[in-house]
Amino acid sequence: MAIWIIDSTHSEVQFKVKHLMISTVTGNFGTYDGSVETSNEEDFTGAKVSFSADINSISTGQEQRDGHLKSGDFFDAENFPKLTFASTSMEKVEDENYTITGDLTIKGTTKEVILKAEFGGTMGDFYGNTKAGFDISGKINRQDFGLTWGAVTEAGGVVVSDEVRLAFNIQLIKQS
Questions:
Q1: How far is residue 54's CA from residue 2's CA, in Å, rounded to a whole number?
Q2: For residues 64 and 99, is the Cβ–Cβ distance under 8 A?
Q3: Residue range(s) defining the domain that contains residue 116
Q4: Which one of 47, 92, 104, 174 is separated from 122 by 20 to 30 angstroms, measured CA to CA?
């Protein structure tokens, strides 16, 4: 058995949402942590994944928008300071591709989500640590998690898409 933790200095946790249905806004969480528990050090099949992100660490590069996302209209950071994910399965699909199924909790609502993970391999670093890398992607509907704020422009255009794309580039450090 091996325990791996996220190396946040070499990882990114991003989300992408259509704005006015013509362009994409990218945001990220600056503060997060997570771990992966494996029974086989060569293969992540059956691994248990846990993850949490601090809602107050959201950044889209625009302070006013970030404040709106942290408000009750969206994540309600004051009452729900973290989002969490706990896997229920991690299965190898083919070669280096996995499917991670689990429970995502945002704003007090838990729903099952399915994520795609591409395993980048393992490598030793300059300090003798064993690292593993994954590119993880998925989609959720923000309405499913109570993120229901919406507006329509005078021309009838939707301001914020319901679909949110997830893009995580994760580097893990094996614990001794």
A1: 26
A2: no
A3: 2-174
A4: 104
* Number of domains within the chain: 1
Cβ-contact 58, 69 below 8 angstroms = yes
Listed in sequence order, the residues at least 6 apart from 106 whose beta carbon sits closer than 8 Å to its beta carbon are: 75, 80, 83, 145, 146, 147
CATH number at residue 14: 2.40.128.110
Summarised one tens digit per residue, pLDDT across range 4-59 is 999 999 999 999 987 666 678 899 999 999 999 998 767 899 999 999 999 999 99
Provide the terminal-to-terminal Cα distance of the chain, rounded to the nearest Å: 11
Judged by phi (left if over 0) then psi (alpha if -120 to 50, else beta), residue 91 lies in beta
* Contact (Cβ atoms closer than 8 angstroms) between residue 43 and residue 92: yes
pTM over 0.85? The answer is yes
